[in-house]
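Q: What would this complex look like in 3D?
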Amino acid sequence: MKYMTRGMKIFRVFNYIFITLVSLSCFLPLLNTLAVSFSSPVAVSTGKVYFWPIEFTTMAYEFALKGGKFMRALQVSALRCLLGVSINLFMMITTAYPLSKSRQRFGARNYYMVFYVFTILFGGGLIPYYILVNQLGLLNSIWSLVLPLSVPVYNMIILMNFMRGLPHELEEAAMVDGAGIIRTLVNVILPVLTPALATVGLFSFVYHWNDWLTGALFMHDPKNYPLQTYLQTLLTNFSELLRQSGSDYYSLLSRMNEQTGRAAQLFLALLPMLIIYPFVQKYFTTGLVMGSVKG
Amino acid sequence: MIKRLRYEWPYHALLLPGVILTFIFSYLPIYGIIMAFQDYNPGLGFIGSPWVGLDNFKLIFSTPQFLRSIYNTFYISLFKIVLQTLASVSFALMLNEIRLTSAKRIYQTIVYIPNFISWVIMAGILLNLLATDGMINALIKAMGGRPIQFISNRSIFPWTIIITDVWKTFGFGTVVYLASITSIDPELYEAAVIDGAGRWKQTRYVTIPMLYPIIILMVVLSLGNVLNAGFDQVFNLYSPAVFPTGDIIDTFVYRLGLQNGKYAIGTAVGLFKSVISCTLISLSLYIAYRFANYRVF
Amino acid sequence: MKKLLRTLLAMLLVLSIMPLTAAFAQTIGTREAQPIPEGDWKTPYPTVVNITTVKGAGADLVFEDGDSHTNNPWTRAWLDQLGIEVTHEWVDDGNTQYDTKLNMTIATGNLPDVFKVNYVQFRQLVQADLLLDLTDYYNENLSQRIRDYEKTDPDTIKQSTVNGRIYGIPEYYYGIIDQPKDLWIRKDWYEDAGSPELKTIEDFENLAKLFMEKYGGYGLAIENKLENLFMTGPMFGVYLGNPANANAQYFWYKDDTGRIKAGIAHPEFKKALTYWAKWYEEGIISPDFANFDVNKMTQDLVNGKAGMQPHYQWQGWHVGPNLVGAQGSDNAYMIPFPFPTEDGSQVLGQIGFPNNRVIVVAKTCTNPAAVMKLLSFTDHIMFDPTTKLTEEEFKGYTDGQREHAPGSVEIIDPMADMIQFEHVLHALKTGETQDLFTAGMQKKYGDSISWIQDKNPGGLGAYLQQGFDGCAYYNSKFLIDNDFLKRTDVWGPPPEEFDKTVNTIDVLLNGVMEIIMGVQPVEYYDTVLANWYAQGGQIMEDAINAQYGGQ
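A: Here is my prediction, written as structure tokens for the whole assembly.
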């Protein structure tokens, strides 16, 4: 900046203050939740906990982590994310690429598009879905969690828009060299797609990591519960658990309650995101956007 | 036709696996919709359950509270979409004025964080914050105002819902819009500077117009969701005192007690929502194409 | 004079309790030594029989290393002692999706042999003709103990009897002693106030105002879904449901004309509304109560912002430990009082239909008698005082909440909590612990002792429920023994016609809230009630009267 007018300086100062205030308001709930998860239930239920743990305890986490169930559920979740994200990425690429072509280039494009958009608007509900998964023999298997939503349509559209934004010259050059459609996709398009794939891949990951309901419905053996399903069962049972509690739970009672438990659950859910997010963020921003700029 | 296929077959081949899986898992179960026209009994199945015609629809549409919940849903949803877009775009523009890249990135990450926090937890925080003796009202009182009943006053409640939701989710839009701004061709700004445009005019005549396409995409996508006005949020904050203005379709359906196997009514409401969303999305696509010459899908 | 009267009354009470405490040996006596039915259920099968089932189990169930829901002391005992191998088609750990999973399983058409259903599912399965007629097996293969539960509760089994044939065996419940609610009051505040008499509503209001004066805040802690406030109905002679529970939103009983009506349609409800609106105006109910979810309500109690709360008998688990912790005083906890009434007369305990589930057997089951064996065995281990187990066996069956491991073949003794309470209180008073024959008794006793002796706040829940004269079950037992009860006239699930209404209670709750908060006068309730009738209340009331014999 060579020079600034007086008005601009004032604006800049105001701008910084405003942005900082807004950001602070967005950050504090997280801090509060973290503090709650590490505080004693007494401190929490007297409303003393703001942004720093009071009467520090890790009981809420110990409660979630105790026993072999947690590690097992973690493994199931990890496998589910690995399979789920890979399948989603493969399907999104193979679907978004043809759909990113104009109708002139790919005549049936619009039919396919309608085929997919229809699925985000209409569904048959839980029961026929369950009957189907049962008939396919997928119940109680990890495949029942990763196959059904193999083409996430929203994310596919974002990816498709990204591909539409790529310069045509890229492809044309490859075609002139005699590469077929699939060769072009693999050799030319995929390499420049990394940012977009990182973005939709993260969305996919978040979905598979956080979804607890399908785990509870399709897994017949609790050994196969993914992590969020397991944590959910612990917490929905918490008050029940206290009501019938025996002597084992004395230490628990004074060191955690449902609120601190929920806060801890949120953090366990967030943890992988917090680890992955910084790596993805630089792609995340560019990827998402390119997706929609060109019409 | 055949010629076309000769050239285009790889596209079809690429689409095939996705189409097969989507057909199996999204189209085969769609027959479940017929439940909306049945008195469904899982024991009798889809074939054996008695047909009741439009009875399920008649039942819900003859309930004044349901009609009211439709109105509330639209009211809350539409204002959420409008204000969210406004908030995200303006925050992105303000953030864009920050020169320091690392600061920009940190702010961007921070405003995204509330998206991760579930409404169960957020509601707990908000109920404390917005209570008559809570922090916000303490502030209002300190400035000489009268305490506001954010949660229990029925004319204020929908706005409490709208504003807290905008605050919680605007970070997502900001990330998207900011990234679009960054990718605007710098030559456009240079041209504007030559024409004598200051910062404000650059924003007004270059940045904002360049954002239109993505704004349209985001709005169209959210219109598909217009009948989901935020179940988790409303459910965790409302009370009978604000039913007339705060009850939305999803909370209404929840109170039906789906756990009691009232699948038929749930399906009827779901079908109704699907038809409305479908109409809205088609309409918005048409408008986007007709007036902005922009193809979303 | 008053004091003398109270002392006399207290003495009388103690005296009346003494024969009771002495009597439980006899009570138990009449419950043992039953003739074993033909085809003794204890005889094992010579060759192993397989039974399939599904179950929902609380997440608090803990198994020893290597054990699981499908292989544990129970399943091994069934196999070794009865010759029955039980296969679980699925287990819903945490019991969050049991009904949904079961509905879906029914939809697939592959029913397990034995499973638990709610009454809606029961009705649907009967309509679909998928259930086995259990009448003969019930009479010939089930233990006498279980069949005798009909002596405690003769009517519940009728709800799963169709045309005189039994298609489902009630799961039963821990007892109606669970049901009456109490007015919970901060003990230290109450004593500081000179332990005043709490007979009339005026007494209550004065005490609330005294608390407000001394400690600030407000009087009565309630939340915004009105569950707790509706518990105060008996104070005004009106009996209400739980608006937050879709299955029990109304409490139905006959009026003078013999017509069964929901509590909210009885004229006394307006009296309740008048008082509630007055309490709101006077600050006895917090001006902010519409903001309160359950957590916020508890938070205010723990913080000392309020010292009274209408609540269930398990309040001690809910508020107890935190309150003691936060106030840092062993005397800062809440104790249960019977609700006061307008004229100081005896309040009645409200008793609704307590059974939620029935155990059914699929028509495809090849060996229904084996199911009866399983049910009898589980009951024998859990509730039969004559059962002799080694300590190791007992621990195997019951440690880590494993008494609930049988899942779908678990029937509960409808006198369980009453018997448990008598034994626990007796053991606490005499120090004789040898008669604590169930896991529940041992736990509640251990918890109570840990509060009494070590002031361990974790023990407060059990102590306040069962641990002293004046505890929650003590109050309930008094109501039951003297028949100070208001039983519902609808001893069964809601009729099918209820499905022809949707969310009828909305109009009502909104109107009630507005009246309490002073937005509308009490007279407005006539309009609200008329709307309620117009929007489904009439359909419900007619159906109830048709099915349950009202006028």
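A: To summarize the key features: Chain C has two domains: 49-175+357-409, 180-351+453-548. The first strand of chain C starts at residue 49 and ends at 57.
Q: Very helpful, thank you.
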